[in-house]
Amino acid sequence: MKKIIAILVGSIALASCSSDDNKSSSDDPIFSQPYTELANLDELQTGKYQYVGNKIGDRKVGVVGETSNCKRIDYLLVHRNPTTSVLDSLTYNNFRLDKVEGKLECMSIFEFPRLLQKNELLRPGYMRTSIEDGYYEQLYKDDGKTKDGRAYRRKDHFKGELEIGFQAGYLRVEDRISDYSRITKDEKVYLYFKKM
């Protein structure tokens, strides 16, 4: 009888510990915080925002560690017209560790930083944007050999609306700016930035 009681008490204690562990692991300290939709483009402060992490699908927000030197230099820059203070564009770049001439260095993942232009807040929390490479490619004439010298274009990456707002003290932007490939078309991916 004592063995049965000991087994029952042990089972109850184990079950209660297990349920507490599962409960705490399902809470996301960032994504569980209230989300505030961007209500006006003026809420985006001019200057640099440092990348702090991302949220992919149902996973918790992954925060960049102190030793992740290259990810810590990822950035989002907010540019405003100096005379009107109207939002002009946003620039995004991200980095990875690469070996260059035998030395490890942080190198841009993109050939050119990504530029978010023609930004318009359609409704709170949803911004229409055009994401392109931050350079102009010179176009060729009809013969395909001679550069025109007058015609240029940018490489497009995304045109449409993305979610944008604030959560847990961070700027949260739906990820349409990196090269992450979604597993499904409905998978939600967010990037988190803090104002520098």
Give a written overview of the molecule.
It is a single chain. With 196 residues, this protein is mainly beta. It has one domain. 15% of the residues lie in helices and 47% in strands. It contains two helices and 14 strands, in the order αβββαβββββββββββ. It has helices at 2-26, 69-72; strands at 35-37, 47-56, 62-63, 75-80, 87-93, 95-100, 103-108, 114-123, 126-133, 137-140, 147-153, 156-167, 170-174, 189-195. The strands form three sheets. It has an eight-stranded antiparallel β-barrel with strand order 2-4-5-8-9-12-13-14. It has a two-stranded antiparallel ribbon with strand order 6-7. A two-stranded antiparallel sheet has the order 10-11. This is Lipoprotein.
Strand composition percent: over 45%
* Major beta-sheet overview: 8 strands, antiparallel, barrel
* Chain-averaged pLDDT: 83
N-to-C SSE series?
HEEEHEEEEEEEEEEE
- Helix content range: 10-25%
Strand order of the largest sheet: 2-4-5-8-9-12-13-14
Number of DSSP-assigned strands: 14
Low-confidence stretches: 4-25
Tell me the Rg in angstroms: 23 Å
Overall, the morphology is globular
How many domains make up the coordinates? Answer: 1
Counting DSSP H or I runs of 4 or more residues, the number of helices is 2
Notable characteristics:
mainly beta, 14 strands, 196 residues
Summarize the structure.
This is Lipoprotein. By secondary structure, the protein is mainly β.
